[in-house]
Specification:
The protein is mainly α and 173 residues long. A two-stranded antiparallel ribbon has the order 1-2.
Length: 173
């Protein structure tokens, strides 16, 4: 009901309101400042001459500049230029989980995949004397401080089963 009323008010006398807006006098723009005009260069030939003239002192200084660039021979690639150069990162092969064809095969050094994170947290939880922070850092190419914070703040899920109560239910009286 309210939608019909709003639509009726919106379309009421629409044509005459549109003609009134169209026929209104358009506001004139403010006059521009005389120095902001682009044709000031054409009006003053002295300025144009100064802009387009060559300065011999600046040219000699520019000729004295010498830039030397050398590429390392190991980084130069011969052949097609279709590849965009990118930052070379060292990769390491991951310890694969149970979904071998879906798991990530290579991870940048200093990072771990989700499967590896869960595996190392679980190994540390089950055998903390064998899987110490130092061994995990060496095994997965991580920094020791990161491994310590990972083991401190990320705790894997544990399943706790509570004993069933042996009391019989109280019958309503």
């Amino acid at each position: 009901m309210g939608g019909r009323l709003v639509r009726a008010l919106r379309s009421f006398n629409l044509e005459s309101r549109a003609h009134r807006e169209i026929s209104k006098e358009k506001p004139t723009p403010a006059p521009r400042h005389p120095t902001a005009r682009l044709d000031a260069l054409t009006e003053h030939p002295a300025i144009r001459e100064k802009v387009y003239s060559k300065d011999d002192r600046l040219l000699t200084l520019l000729k004295d500049v010498y830039v030397e660039s050398r590429d390392l021979p190991g980084q130069v690639k011969v052949g097609g230029g279709e590849h965009v150069p990118c930052k070379h990162e060292e990769k390491r092969i991951t310890k694969l989980g149970q979904f071998e064809h879906l798991d990530i095969k290579k991870v940048t050094k200093g990072k771990i995949s989700i499967v590896e994170a869960l595996m190392l947290l679980n190994n540390h939880k089950l055998h903390p004397k064998i899987w110490t922070a130092e061994k995990i850092a060496v095994e997965y190419s991580l920094e020791l401080t990161e491994v310590n914070s990972l083991l401190e703040f990320f705790i894997p899920f544990t399943l706790k089963e509570f004993p069933k109560e042996t009391r019989k239910a109280i019958k309503p009286t």
